[in-house]
């Protein structure tokens, strides 16, 4: 991986045995172990099994549906950088029930349980993203950071987000999120540095409701909305600054919004967006609208 992935991706794109819509998974363990130990107890067709894993991004927000063609395009254009699905093998204990993926975990570090009678079993754990600069792996994103990426790029359809309760930090609140409308991204150049604004609108439904919950009051709903807005705004800003300052990698393709400021292609290439992205500043406007009528299904 230290030598880059360009040669591998270009070879796969030119090989008729591989379709461009095949998904790319960067394994945190040995690739041979990942392939040999991954298995499904409910899906016997291997191809279908891997397809389900990639498309789960539509309803979990834990990863992204990235194909060979997507990575190839990112490696050959000047508007953004490549990313790929992050995978590993996780051991599942035999305790009954199943625990949710923590918002700050990545593949191979989640804790979950299986309800069977075996002592343990290995299975694919696909959580997070592998981030590339040019064609070199430069970092990893956790589940909550991946969700932020999906929101920024308007690729999130639905997911469940757990936030601390504004009334009792020891009692979490589960929110069922939908993207209310496509995220509006804009880029300005201020003294040569990118100033990026993201306007996010989400609708939410409270899932963690019981007879002791007091979420039906309008003032409590407003308080939860305000807290959810603050929480997501903070998470998204942390994610954006991490990709720019720590990784210098524009996986959100903000370059598509910046190119309009350059009259010629030569001017755009001379500016070197991929090199200047690390100098970006961000403003996130987050609006989470919790529908009170959704409290009771």
What does this structure look like?
- It is a single chain.
- This protein is α+β, with helices and mostly antiparallel strands.
- It has two domains: 1-141, no CATH class; 143-297, Nutrient germinant receptor protein C, domain 3 (GMP Synthetase, Chain A, domain 3, 2-Layer Sandwich), CATH 3.30.300.
- Helix content is 31%, strand content 27%.
- The strands form two sheets. Strands 5, 6, 7, 8 and 9 form a five-stranded mixed beta sheet that branches.
- Strand 7 and strand 8 (193-206) form a beta hairpin.
Quick overview:
By secondary structure, this protein is of the alpha+beta class.
Question: Features of this protein?
Answer:
alpha+beta, 9 strands, disordered C terminus, globular, 297 residues, 4-stranded mixed sheet, GMP Synthetase, Chain A, domain 3
> What is the percentage of strand-forming residues?
25-35%
Rg (CA only): 21 Å
Mean pLDDT: 79
Tally of discrete structural domains: 2
Protein structure class: alpha+beta
Order of helices and strands: HEHHHHEEEHEEEEHHHHE
> Mind summarizing the main beta sheet?
5 strands, mixed
CATH topology of the largest domain: GMP Synthetase, Chain A, domain 3
- The total beta strand count reads 9
Number of helices: 10
Which CATH first-tier class of the largest domain would you pick?
Answer: Alpha Beta
CATH architecture of the largest domain: 2-Layer Sandwich
Distance N terminus to C terminus? 48 Å
Q: Helix share of residues? A: 25-40%
